[in-house]
Task: structure prediction
Amino acid sequence: MKKLDIELTVGIFLLIGILSVGYLSFKLGKLEILGKRGYSLYAEFEKAGGIKPGAVIEIAGVQVGTIKSIRLNKDNLALIEFSLNNNVQVRDDAIASIKTKGLIGEKFIQISPGGSDNILQSGEKIRDTESAVDVEELISKYVFGKV
Result:
């Protein structure tokens, strides 16, 4: 009887441990089992500047979505698709900019809200964009006197 109780207790603790590791894997890996609810918008940039899928979308410093995919469109521009939370509304005159957190930090997209009354719907495109600043290009222009 004593041996059965010990084995049962160990089995329960082992099961709890496995479930905890699985939960942490999903949370820390930012994986979604059922998919996050939201809607998609697009933006075209001349230079994607090292931004990657899964990067953050911010409005006023608050995370409101993530980048779903980055691909090249027919005009050889970087077409970025991102998913925004349902409670976030983006106006049709908003500006999407690729920014860097810190000096050599990760890239993210910052959306500056517009003042228009028209709200973008799922699948529409943000027209005004600012590509990432290429530090190497700026340094080479300065060194070779083209500034």
Observations:
- The mean pLDDT is 84.
- The beta strands are 39-45, 56-59, 62-72, 78-84, 95-100, 107-112, 125-126, 128-130.
